[in-house]
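TL;DR need structure tokens for one chain.
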Amino acid sequence: MRVEALIALGGNLGDVRACFRAARDELHALPDCKVVASSSLYCSKAIGPEDQPDYLNGVLLMETALPPLQLLGHMQQIEAKHGRERKQAWGARTLDLDMIGYGDLNLDTPELNLPHPEVAKRMFVLQPLCDIRPNWHHPRLRMTASQMLEALILEGFKPLNKGNPW
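>> reply
TL;DR here they are.
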């Protein structure tokens, strides 16, 4: 059975656009996976240490038959392949892949929480999510992505090359 998985991408070191394209291609090449939509890219201020560059952010929509923890393992391997180092919480990084949702699954494990617990608070996730799935329904909050987006104040967040920046 195939499920829709939503993957958020973030990065602020190196050639982030090239890294995003490569990560998208690598996710698409996974067994039983197909990337079916890519959002526009957005620029956001870093959360955490203030002495780091702004982030680029986007969201991918995938169809997958992989179980969520197996997909997470592949995502972490892709991050590592692209130089992701986990030295400092909220620190600068080449690539961050977060699973935002996996079908309508609610999951709470030490490795993975679904839907992502911070999705409703993150403009840099909600705006690109609304590009590709504005009616995505958060199974716990019972709100759509566009309703969550409307609930937040937009500050320091702007689209880069609206359309197909990949």
